[in-house]
Design a protein that fits this description.
This protein is an alpha+beta fold. Helix content is about 35%, strand content about 25%. It is built from six helices and five strands. Strands 1-2-3-4-5 form a five-stranded antiparallel beta sheet.
Length: about 140
């Protein structure tokens, strides 16, 4: 057994709940609904410009988010509708290195069916500040 490699590959799992949402670590099962969300033309209007997302990209991004959470303790997390148990979108902290120096942005994107329900407002105080208090 390689203790160092086994320790490094530990799974980090975040799960925070609000009244209507579950905010959690991205999982492989999120690839399809994430891809559907980010390929919706109305949602894409609010995303950074770039090539059309693919399933390969979705799977790579999920892996990168899991690695970022292990390394930094924060990332973009999946958001579920608690009652329906369905993917609603993503929210989290994203490092940005633009301008004067490194910063962290509070970021969120939701499926169009979840717009105008107050999910971003509900999720925002539910996780970043709670995570900071726990640390």
């Amino acid at each position: 057994m390689n203790w160092v490699a086994d320790t490094y590959d530990l799974v980090v799992s975040t799960r925070l709940e609000t009244a209507r949402l579950v905010i959690r670590t991205f999982e492989a099962r999120d690839a399809d609904p994430w891809l559907a969300m980010v390929t919706d033309p109305e949602v894409r209007r609010f995303l950074p410009a770039g090539p059309a997302p693919t399933m390969e990209l979705a799977q790579r991004i999920i892996g990168e988010r899991q690695a970022m959470e292990r390394e930094l303790g924060h990332t973009m997390w999946a958001v579920e509708d608690k009652m329906a148990g369905t993917f609603a979108g993503q929210c989290g902290l994203r490092p940005v290195d633009e301008g004067a120096g490194p910063e962290i942005d509070l970021t969120y994107h939701y499926t169009r069916s979840c717009w105008n329900k107050g999910y971003a407002t509900e999720a925002a105080p539910g996780w970043p500040f709670r995570r900071c208090r726990e640390d």
